[in-house]
Amino acid sequence: QVQLQESGPGLVKPAQTLSLTCTVSGGSITTNYYYWSWIRQPPGKGLEWIGYIAYSGSTYYIPSLKSRTSISRDTSKNQFTLQLSSVTPEDTAVYYCASGLRVGVYDYWGQGTQVTVSS
Q1: What pLDDT digit, counting tens, does each position of 43-98 carry?
Q2: How far is residue 107 from each of residues 36, 82, 99, 119, measured CA to CA in Å?
Q3: Which H helix or E strand runs over 7?
Q4: Strands, E, within 8-112: which ranges?
Q5: Is the pLDDT reported for residue 2 higher than 90?
């Protein structure tokens, strides 16, 4: 059974970079043909997909966040990381990592981690 666990600071100051890591167990992040995604849910709003890093290492980010987003991986640790720069209070959300064989269809989810952007 694949398990995902998010980790990172719960509080980030405005204009700083948010950095979260997803640690994967029970499966490899290089397994064909899985996509490893970051998704967030701001308070009172729906889920917003941020982007993915694929089994091949290729990445995709949604256009509205592309200029501030980077998703990378460490295959030796079986982890993938989200970096979101120049954060504002609007980036306050519960952040999830998730994976599946198709983009937008998630077989496995982390439990989510609250990130608050505040001075």
Answers
A1: 999 999 999 999 999 999 999 999 999 999 999 999 999 999 999 999 999 999 99
A2: 10, 20, 6, 36
A3: strand 3-7
A4: 11-12, 18-25, 35-41, 48-54, 59-61, 69-74, 79-84, 93-100, 108-109
A5: yes
